[in-house]
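Job type: complex structure
Entries:
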Amino acid sequence: MFLIRLWHYLKGYVIIIVSGFGAEKFVNICTKRQILIWDMERLDSNRIQMKISMRGFKSARTAARKSRCRVRIKAKKGLPWLLGRYRKRRGFLAGIIAFAILIYFMTSIILSIEITVNTKAETKKLVEQMNGLGIYRGVSKRFIDPKRLADTLMINNQELS
Amino acid sequence: MIRKKTPPASKKKKESRTVREKLARILEIPEEIVSDHPKITSIGRKEVFVENYKGIIEFSNEIIRINSNYGIIAITGKNMKIREITSEGIIIYGDIDNIDYVV
């Protein structure tokens, strides 16, 4: 059920109120034309509320005319409507993309190197060794093999464990 | 008004239907697939699923009347909603009291 609702949300739908005597006829015409209708409920003696797919709603106009009912839109739901609202705001979209790229880029490089050892001299020695192995600030994480790095460092320094 | 719309069953159509049913019986195909009789599935008292229908005649929270090749199916209950309606079937949800054939 959740998946179906998600699918409807992604495709976009309209909540409409159909009023008039031929409301049932309207539904029949819609189903004959393979338009999906769901969550139908009667509000009072001549009004029916239902949900109809966005694509179906466009072709439901003629059905409404045929069955002589009035169709009123109560709400537009779904992702396509939401995107349509933000279509003119290019900067918003650019901001989202820039944010994603920035996050990806900043998490893929080394920003700082921290070493916890007893003496200052050892720290300096280790940093030099690591620089020799190709590890310094700003290098991409993609080119680092952590296992090999740990092995080489341990082989070169007997006091490390 | 609804009765007028259904054409009088011609002899030819009736004959073909019996042939179809006979064939289905020989080939052991479930009759519900071949025939155009309505198929009603109900799950507890909350949900009714009607397949092979022709159209809805009346819809309200207390009564839903569905037209089929067999006659009118009247489903009565309380707080009834149609959860989904396609050309294949209707899913009705609510506190259902009766499922009747109105001939």
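Summary: Chain B has a mean pLDDT of 83. Chain B touches chain A through 14 residues (CB under 8 Å).
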